[in-house]
Structures
1.
Amino acid sequence: MIYQQFRDLKLSSLGMGNMRLPLQNDEPGAPIDRIRAQEIIDFAMANGINYYDTAYLYHNGESEKFLGEALANYPRESYYLATKFFLLANPDYKAVFEEQLSRLKTDYIDFYLLHAVFDETFDRYMGEGSVEYFLEQQKLGRIKYLGFSFHGSEETLQKLVAARKWDFAQIMLNYYDWMTGKAKREYEILKEHNTPIIAMEPVRGGRLATLSPGAEAILKQAHPDWSLASWALRWIKRLPQVKVVLSGMSTLDQIKENIELFSDERVLTDEEEAIALSAAEVFQKQVLVPCTACRYCCDTCPAEINIPAMLELYNRYKLDGAWVLEDIDEIESTGKPKDCIACNVCVEHCPQSIDISGIMQELAAQIK
């Protein structure tokens, strides 16, 4: 295992994320399969992983409880715990913190985070007393390092890092979002402030493990023996500001492959990085619909569907998974995808010739 220096600690480059532990069945909200999950934790400990990330809400609150039990037989100094306070789940930060210590069966948290700072929650996090309380706990030794995980705009990140000196920050970092999104700029901002980074979603929730045919062909031609997921993990090893890469490993095969990758000092060459980014570009073109929100389609829709908004939702669904479809209720639209009658009048007005009715049918089939 490769280790990274963080203050006076040596952190395993690969961290164990505990948001996607194996489950007893495929039903939503199914209980953690504690036998298989324990095998993964034991394998991680035996093979040098010493950073374990969880949160108050993961697995409906069971992740912290499981992790506390799973690590109870190991010396406390042999691993580092990371967990988070999410004010939208429960704003009582004092009660939450005490509950987390109890769940995790510990009297201190190594890495404590404000969870999911958005533009909309920034003022509340900074103004409702939680930061001051956690700083007090840090002085008492009950929190070793205080940081945040981030999902907001560049402007909010600038305000956040200017507010105080944070010990670390956690951001979504992968080669797709480096090319298409805000990941590169977030990395640069944190580097400018000399803030160590914990990287989450290196395989974008598993999406970079199953690319479009054209994108996959590019990567397989370069290295037929590499898995698609390994390209994402090899890429992130290029970034020196990153101290730990979190991976939500739910099978022994996944953790074995990842440990092998993070036991090898080799990183992608500049040429290989260019190949990965070119695959990301092809993937984007092949997966996403090229809607420009011109709205030529809207006036003639008999179902009064807000088509551009639904196509934007469709693109998010293709990239991030079915969970984003829950946001459909937030879209201002008289009609829903299920109301589409496939008259195709919208297609006649679409400059991009998008198969709108086909996409509406696909969304309708996914939205229950």
Note: The longest helix spans residues 270-287.
2.
Amino acid sequence: MTYKTDYPSIIQIGDCLLSSEIFTEKFCCDYEKCKGACCIIGDSGAPLEKEEAAMLEREYPSFSPYMSGAGKNQIRCSGYCTIDSDGDLVTPLVNGEECAYAMFEGDHCFCAIERAWINGKTPFRKPASCRLYPIRISKLSNGLTAFNLHRWELCRDAFIKGRKEGIPVYRFLKEPLTAVYGEEFYREIEAAAGIFAGKE
């Protein structure tokens, strides 16, 4: 595998362009601090692939029992997914706030889809965009795929915890990166991290 570093801030692995921050920045979710607020606060729902939208509809009976009444009502009104102001396919929001697929236990918010997955009710864990956060994936006009780090004040404690524990973003996301893109892709990321570290 050949790693191209045409720009100091980008590493190319195959047809994917990875921001150097994925290798240099540290991150580790601190759920006890945020209590799942990423499922509640935001301008839009979670980005979806077309295949995921179809999966939401097909698997809905498996995870709907875990959803809030407001979430289920939103799905009845807007459907399993919607188009946001940027023209992107996303999960619906309840009153412009929490994701329709959220569930609550006291003041803690969880993903109803993932809860159903944990309990063995569905093979669909949750949208890849949620699993891969804080990496945001976007398709470029030249056919390449961009992996960028998203910085959100809401996740400030996660960056602090990651730095304290010395966990790079790519390592924190090993499981979802491997699940979504495969073991070989993650091995290439690890190799690229080593090459990049040597250039620091």
Note: Residues 45-125 form one domain.
3.
Amino acid sequence: MKRVVVLGSTGSVGRQTLDIVRAHPERFQVVGLSAGSNVDLLAQQIDEFEPQVFAIADEAAGDEFLARDRRLRSACAGLGATALCDVARVRADIVVNALLGYAGLEPTLAALEAGTDVALSNKETLVVAGALVRHAADATGARILPVDSEHSAILQCLRAGERREVRRLILTASGGPFRTHSREEMRRITRQEALRHPTWSMGAKITVDSATLMNKGLEVLEAHWLFDVEFDRIDILVHPESIVHSLVEFDDGSVIAQLGLPDMRLPIWYALHAPARPEASFATLDLAAVGRLHFESLDHERFPCVALAIGAGRRGGVYPAILNAANEVAVAAFLDERLRYLDIPDLIDTVLKEAGAPAPARLDHGAIRDADAWAREVATRHILQGCPTGDPPC
């Protein structure tokens, strides 16, 4: 029986993780849960799984929740960001971090420092603080097990050879809903169009990141820290069917790929059991039914977010944190219809250029927090003043 904490239990990955737990009660016991503001769903999950402890990130929603159901006060670790870390430190075998954005960093570190394996869906954790996260894992021997389908695929493919024999990692990308759009067509993209992903069902923020392909840039940074591979040896290949989830090329020219249906439960299942492969009840891949698989190069001119992310990763220091914060602000503004689709990369580029100064020699929590706050302030100021392209109104 594996003791599991699910952070972000009311989101897409969190709900799918609990689907697995529900289907296999003989394998898993939920000992901790956390939610943002969806307290109604959290209440249902608490009733069903009876965790030892839970937390609510949104303090206003949490106050209302506890006032409504006082019997749950004894199991509540608290409200706000600090409480998420308290849940992450509960004695468990694995913490599934399905939190959204920068908020996932501190709970990841808390779990790793407690010596608990982390099934990581929150890519921003490694993007903004890869060195700190790796140090925390190495210090306790806790494992970081990727939940992203691409990184899960690479983890599986790497078992085909020695790490020293790896020539390059190849991340696949569906290309998103605008893979064939011209630059002119992209000027008219709406919020509703950006939220219609062709193959995956995800939360709003990551769906927009998939539309701009910022998610693929962030995944390059994530792969760099997960697998200790230089940026020059990480490539991106567009694959619209999302059947080949990623590939690893070895020195002898062999390319090992992991294939599967576009179902997030598969990488979650692998993260919960790795390196074992117990039988699962998911639908299996029928390649004859798929028929054909297509691959093409990434068009960096139409999707500039990828280069922005990799550039920030190469510069290192606090630049990935600045990139991530600017992107979170830009995507939120786009979802609120205060920013246009093409303004997203323009705003991120503007904030990165305004940072200007060289990366600090030493990266610590304080530097990351300061950079995150600075970037959010600068990005917000540019939105309030007008679009970064200079064409008001946003």
Note: The chain has a mean pLDDT of 92.
